[in-house]
Write a structure and sequence with these properties.
binds dihydroflavine-adenine dinucleotide; 434 residues; Enolase-like, domain 1; single chain; globular; FAD/NAD(P)-binding domain; binds nicotinamide-adenine-dinucleotide; alpha/beta; 9 helices; seven-stranded mixed β-sheet
Length: 434
């Protein structure tokens, strides 16, 4: 059995891994000290591209174009970069066993990897309809999207089913981004989701009404308040129809499912403390086990601003938590203190010509401002969330970089609101003057 040993091992080769590697190099790394283990066959890349530019019919994004750290305006870390720095990229390597007590990982091919310090960065996996026993959910051309291999299969199907019918199951991030991407590829798109409006985890009814109207104007059909309960397929096993709980049957050549994600922590069950579905960490991303850190989607960390433990499944936190963990590892080695993680939640999405950003917390009362008429030539609107007389969250569609900066500032500073009616009238001007 082959055995390797590294001072630092990052388990998972996604967004967090790439940003962690850059931070290690920045703070001082000797060749041979760091390994990144990934079951994907490519070096870390900016995952958000998979549901956006990767699916464009023309000028599609392809690797090496979107390796980390281009997503945040940094230098692109090509596979050669890791080689130059003496970082071992163990690609196509799935870890099937992790023994935190003996600091040992075992790969599917029986390679043993020992470490001094481990960073868990395994991210999330998709929730599958077969997990809830939906009949026929294993038919061909039913797609999920998490990794680049999934995106390649979807692109091949889009080409094979040119001008065909697509059904999107789920009205969250994947649903909205993929609904748009498939429409741009000229498929006839229907979206289905159980809630009264899309993205209910973040959107208010007012925000969602804009996107639903905009999508409808693009020719996307939206069916709400029901779920897929089964799929029909032909003799080749290719999906032909989606059966809904309300009795409707939708013809389908392609189905894309986005019904949520689940952090990948099964390897560590029973070995490390968990909270809120993730691995519990402190403000330095240290877990309950010495020398083991957890970052990105898997970490449930103290969100200082709101004084509670949270898990965040977005790329900005993946990048920043990775950098924080590496800073903490290096500082501990040098016996220096560093500041605790102080994160301002930041989420965004893009589809068609639209682009929104959200900062802060979506709790409390809401005030919608601006033009949210989906038929306007240049719609621009937003929402403030107000809790205990203070603005705690801000959403903005079609903001300029300056405007987005100002809403981030508002969410961070939490200015008091004397008069909600005045705030509604002022709209974005309120944020711009903070
Ligand atoms: P990430 O999922 O990036 O990486 C985990 C890696 O670990 C993967 O390479 C995986 O193969 C590997 N791995 C897992 N288990 C393993 C094992 N046992 N052995 C070896 N390797 C293993 N966010 C946002 O803010 N804006 C956006 O626009 C988008 N868009 C977006 C699109 C799509 C299609 C997805 C799937 C996700 C987004 N996100 C997003 C979310 C964002 O991409 C996500 O939060 C980060 O990628 C999380 O980074 P991590 O490094 O934690 O996991
Ligand atoms: P999500 O949690 O955003 O949305 C899940 C949606 O699934 C719900 O809103 C609901 O409409 C729907 N749903 C649940 N059960 C259903 C059922 N039985 N039938 C039909 N619909 C059902 O999750 P997602 O969109 O699948 O995204 C997966 C992961 O990828 C998340 O971690 C997300 O944060 C991440 N992601 C983020 C972005 C972004 O930040 N822009 C983009 C893509 C993906």
């Amino acid at each position: 059995m082959a055995e390797k040993h590294f001072k630092y091992v990052i388990l998972g080769g996604g967004v967090a891994a790439g940003y962690a590697a850059r931070e290690f190099v920045k703070l001082g790394l000797n060749p041979g000290e760091l390994a990144i283990i990934s079951k994907e066959s490519v070096a870390p890349y900016e995952r958000p591209a998979l549901s956006k530019g990767y699916l464009f019919p023309q000028g599609a994004a392809r690797l090496p174009g979107f390796h980390v750290c281009v997503g945040s305006g940094g230098e692109r870390l090509l596979p050669e970069w890791y080689a130059e720095k003496g970082i071992e990229l163990m690609l196509g390597t799935e870890i099937v066993k992790a023994d935190l007590a003996s600091k040992t990982l075992t790969s599917a091919a029986d390679v043993i990897i020992k470490y001094d310090i481990l960073i868990i960065a395994t991210g999330s996996t998709v929730i599958r309809l077969s997990d809830f026993g939906v009949q026929g959910a294993d038919a061909n051309n039913i797609f999920y999207l998490r990794e680049i291999d999934d995106a390649d299969k979807l692109v091949a199907a889009i080409h094979a089913k040119k001008d065909g019918k697509a059904v999107i199951v789920g009205g969250g991030y994947i649903g909205l981004e993929l609904g748009a991407a498939l429409k741009i590829n000229n498929l006839d798109v229907t979206m289905v989701y159980p809630e009264p409006w899309c993205m209910p985890r973040l959107f208010t009814a007012g925000i969602a009404a804009f996107y639903e109207g905009y999508y409808a104007n693009k020719g996307i059909k939206i069916i709400k308040g029901t779920v897929a309960v089964g799929f029909d397929s032909d003799a080749n096993g290719d999906v032909t129809a989606v059966r809904l709980k309300d009795g409707r049957v939708l013809e389908a050549d392609i189905v894309v499912v986005g019904v949520g994600g689940r952090p990948l922590i099964t390897l560590f069950k029973g070995q490390v403390e968990e909270e809120k579905g993730g691995i519990k960490t402190d403000g330095f991303f240290k877990t309950s086990i010495p020398d083991v850190y957890a970052v990105g989607d898997v970490a449930t960390f103290p969100l200082k601003l709101y004084n509670e433990q949270r898990r965040v499944e977005h790329v900005d936190h993946a990048r920043k938590s990775a950098e924080q963990a590496v800073k903490a590892i290096k500082a501990a080695e040098e016996g220096k203190p560093i500041e605790e993680y102080d994160y301002l939640p930041y989420f965004y999405s893009r589809s068609f010509d639209l682009s929104w950003q959200f900062y802060g917390d979506n709790v409390g009362d809401t005030i919608l401002f601006g033009d949210n008429d989906p038929t306007s030539a240049k719609p621009k609107f937003g929402t403030y969330w107000i809790k205990e007389g203070k603005v705690v969250g801000v959403f903005l569609e079609s903001g300029s970089p300056e405007e987005n900066k100002s809403i981030a500032k508002v969410a961070k500073l939490q200015p008091p609101v004397q008069d909600p009616e005045q705030l509604e009238k002022e709209g974005l001007a309120f944020a711009s003057k903070i």
